Amino acid sequence: METQPISTPAKNGRHKILIVDDFDDTRHLLRTWLERKGFEVIEAQNGNEAIDQAQAQSPDLIIMDLEMPELDGLSATRKIRNELNLVGVPIVAVSAYGAEQFREPSLSAGCNEYVSTPFEPAELERLIRSYLE
């Protein structure tokens, strides 16, 4: 799915990133790292919360885990794309699952990118900034 980079940061001058992951430690780690990089961060613990936060907060980019309780990341991505019509918001799937098996389903669901963990923080930052700047 092809999207245009987002050019306008949030009102406070910082881009808003939604982190969606069911593990508290993962969200905390990503939140701390992204805030140090100058981003505003909001969080969701599952796919249902992701949909609610995406609708209420209008993030500039979403980092989406795939395997979560209640509603998985692929289903949440489809709903965000189709029901909320947020086609211009980049969604980066981040998962411990191998890229070979889950890259294509992630892209087909509406994710813009798939990143396997563990990942190099500098690479993820370059990817995020490529969509936001």
Sequence-ordered SSE layout with sheet pairings:
Layout: E1 16-20, H1 24-36, E2 40-44, H2 47-57, E3 61-64, H3 73-82, E4 91-95, H4 99-109, E5 113-116, H5 121-132
Parallel strand pairs: 1-2, 1-3, 3-4, 4-5
Number of continuous helical runs: 5
How are strands sequenced across the largest beta sheet?
2-1-3-4-5
Q: For the residues shown, what is the average pLDDT?
A: 89
Shape: globular
Helix proportion = 40-55%
| CA-atom Rg in angstroms | 13 Å
Strand content: 15-25%
- How widely separated are the two ends? 18 Å
The count of β-strands is 5
Secondary-structure element series: EHEHEHEHEH
* Low-pLDDT residue intervals, each spanning 5 or more residues: 1-7
Q: Main beta sheet: strand number and arrangement?
A: 5 strands, parallel
The structural class is alpha/beta
Can you give a write-up of this model?
With 133 residues, the chain is of the alpha/beta class. The protein has helices spanning 24-36, 47-57, 73-82, 99-109, 121-132; strands at residues 16-20, 40-44, 61-64, 91-95, 113-116. Strands 2-1-3-4-5 form a five-stranded parallel sheet, with helices on both faces. Helix 1 links the parallel strand 1 and strand 2 (40-44). Helix 2 packs parallel to helix 3 (73-82). The protein is globular, with a radius of gyration of 13 Å.
